[in-house]
């Protein structure tokens, strides 16, 4: 009996990834009928429509759990396309340094940043890391996330990178969300190596160890990532790492054009990358190359907000035909677990519309992870991942800044309230 169900993709339509970002397929309640979503015993969506239409499709059904969504609205489960959730050693002390004017790279070069977290993550046991990870995933779930991309990258050595990926595997059965996991051994150059040495370490030692874990059925890794940035991995080193990962069957999904314009977007597009993140400094040519390649741009408004960067050109990217997705970028620099907060920032800072923000946080984010066939919209046959907003209009999810817990009445993962 919901007041409003936002399906995101239009009824019966194939997933539309470009111009359709601002278009939502919304079913509104009528004077005498609400909107229903039927879920089958496998947790898949069976039907969506006005109450009587849905009931008529299943005259013999025995309805088990019914969540009453009267005076509420329903949107697809949120998809967080970029996070770094496995680590020990927060960097709350660096927050004050940054507020006082230190840049991200100044903190990094002073021995802080990623390498600080690496020391603590190397020292932590698998159990320590799992204990830190699970409540973070739980907080994401409470804020409506049902599918999340999770990166390694605070090990930078073979053992710790594999340890982080194993922690993600251990989390799967406990987490109420689906995890897409990414190997990011090239997240930073370890203190004792040059970037060239680190590139070889990633390609010749870390990647084969990850591959062995996959072959042995111990790891399920979907993508490869690298921090392509001035003073970290240059475009050529990044390309070699990404190609090596791609040869092992991983999707390409990496950090590009964040602090300096290196034309990494063009490089990624030439490799047919599935996705690139950040893109604050992308050029017009980079946007055109991504649009041609169909590469998803994952925008992370928390980073620009916290580091006081010029935000990524979301409008130019959307208008230029790039499918835009959103992520929290949760990490010790950007401590945000909430996609509704990210959607709010996307609207206010990146000048995206509410409809675009919802598409970017659901269907397009699922497509960035190549899971749009099964996730990201309310369509029969897809997994029943749903967020019930405690208001008749779904926009409350974004409008109530930081109020995700109040605006969401239920999160449903594969048909079950979690
Ligand atoms: O996406 N830019 C590189 N990686 C992260 C930051 C990680 C960290 O600072 O620990 C990002 O913002
Ligand atoms: Fe990141």
Automatic annotation (TrEMBL):
One of its GO terms (biological process) is L-histidine catabolic process to glutamate and formamide. Residues 74-418 form the Amidohydrolase-related domain. Its EC number is 3.5.2.7. InterPro entries: Amidohydro-rel (IPR006680), HutI (IPR005920), Metal-dep_hydrolase_composite (IPR011059), Metal_Hydrolase (IPR032466). Its cofactor is Fe(3+). One of its GO terms (molecular function) is imidazolonepropionase activity. Pathway: Amino-acid degradation; L-histidine degradation into L-glutamate; N-formimidoyl-L-glutamate from L-histidine: step 3/3. It catalyses: 4-imidazolone-5-propanoate + H2O = N-formimidoyl-L-glutamate. GO terms for cellular component: cytoplasm. Keywords: Histidine metabolism, Hydrolase, Iron, Metal-binding, Zinc. The keyword DNA damage does not apply. Belongs to the metallo-dependent hydrolases superfamily. HutI family. NCBIfam families: hutI. This is Probable imidazolonepropionase. It comes from Cherax quadricarinatus.
